[in-house]
Amino acid sequence: MNFYTDIFTQFDKDWALLSAGTIDDHNAMTVSWGGMGTLWGKPVVTVYVRHSRHTFSYMEKNDCFALSFYDASYKKALGVMGSLSGRDCDKDEKAELHPIAIENSVSYKEAKTTIICKKIYCDDIRMEDMSEHIVRSYYPTEDIHRMYIGEVVDIIEE
Known about the structure:
- By secondary structure, the protein is of the alpha+beta class.
- It is built from five helices and nine strands.
- A hairpin with a 2-residue loop joins strand 3 (34-39) and strand 4 (42-50).
C-alpha cells in the first residue's frame, strides 16, 4: 500500500466522501471530520455522521462503508455532495460523479484513493460529556453525531 496523506489537511481542508450502501441504493456525503489510526490491533478509520443526515440510515443498515479522496479539481463536486440531500435529488448526477460498486460498498470513478471499512463500533457523541463551548458551537439544535469506527479492509488507489 502506498497510500499516504497529511490526515489533518485531508479531512479539514481537502474533504472526502463517505458512502454506504449498494450500487443500486446508496448515499454519500462530504466529510471534514475524521481520523485514522490503530485501535484494538487493527488499522481503523473514524467518521462522524449527524442523525439528521440522509447518509445516517445507510451507515446504520450496512456493515461496510467507503471513504474516498479526490484531487483538488473535485472540490466543487464535493461541495455539492455536502450541501444537497440525497432525499431530495440525485446528488451523484448534480455533482457529475460516477458511482461504482467496490467490494461491499460504493465509491466513485473519480476517486484517487478509496478506503473500504467494516464497521466495528459506533456510538453517539454525548453532549453531557463535552465542554459547554463545543455544545454551543456545534450542537445548538442538539443534532448530534454518531461516531463510526471501521476496520480498514482494503485501500484502493487509481
